């Protein structure tokens, strides 16, 4: 039986999951604060000597290629091996994977390791599926709807969940699909919020039975907090602290009441 965002946020707050985040230098502090505000316990642990050991004790692992380098890749591989050996979920954020040969190759190698969840913007998801992408560096420039078939294809390849984010979000596991509305146009003007959302997908995956339910809950939590924070914000600067406050203030009941999740009747709907 599926678990609702309300149930999953209650579970997360009752027992804050330890989330190992191998993320980029831009996102480290921002994502840690987002996870703490939402109710999780982040740890940015990436060196290959300890990343695999840590992944075995964490509730979930998240892997982000935003500031890519060889030491990061070694740490990612060790951590994924540890997470898989311990049966822990892991989430991939393919930041700017369309941009360079190193990123295309690394992202493809990581996809081949079958992430439990992939979360990216539309340009990244199109690129991962081998399609033309208009992404500019880390910023998405394609519409979410343009990447929905790519997401379904990727989900079928990996057996995992794929989330495409943007003005409204799309989630599929190949069989089920849903759209999530909400958020704020100030969100893409705040760096590393996508990276932080990937971290939150890991937090929900740590407490959920089903990574599809976990992804819906994480995206809904962001969408509801983003919409609340937009009210009264005067721009991206004043939005940022309001967003952290809103992530913290959203109760399980409010998440249940305010989340706008629309299940699609069947794949392709
Ligand atoms: N125009 C928008 N309106 C509302 N929410 C948005 C908009 N663009 C992005 N978001 C939200 O911002 C968060 C990060 O998504 P996105 O910007 O696509 O990721 P990334 O930063 O990796 O490119 C998601 O919760 C998404 O729903
Ligand atoms: C600006 C930047 N440069 C390398 S990683 C990064 C952060 C990207 O964060 P997000 O994908 O969440 O916008
Ligand atoms: Mg991103």
UniProtKB/TrEMBL annotation:
GO terms for biological process: thiamine biosynthetic process; thiamine diphosphate biosynthetic process. Transmembrane segments: none annotated. Keywords: ATP-binding, Kinase, Magnesium, Metal-binding, Nucleotide-binding, Thiamine biosynthesis, Transferase. InterPro entries: Hyethyz_kinase, Ribokinase-like. Gene3D superfamilies: 3.40.1190.20. GO terms for molecular function: ATP binding; hydroxyethylthiazole kinase activity; magnesium ion binding. It catalyses: 5-(2-hydroxyethyl)-4-methylthiazole + ATP = 4-methyl-5-(2-phosphooxyethyl)-thiazole + ADP + H(+). Substrate binds at residues 44, 192. It comes from the Bacteria. ATP binds at residues 119, 165. Pathway: Cofactor biosynthesis; thiamine diphosphate biosynthesis; 4-methyl-5-(2-phosphoethyl)-thiazole from 5-(2-hydroxyethyl)-4-methylthiazole: step 1/1. Its EC number is 2.7.1.50. Its cofactor is Mg(2+). Signal peptide: none annotated. Pfam families: HK (PF02110). NCBIfam families: PRK09355.1, thiM. Catalyzes the phosphorylation of the hydroxyl group of 4-methyl-5-beta-hydroxyethylthiazole (THZ). Belongs to the Thz kinase family. This is Hydroxyethylthiazole kinase. It comes from Pararhodobacter marinus.
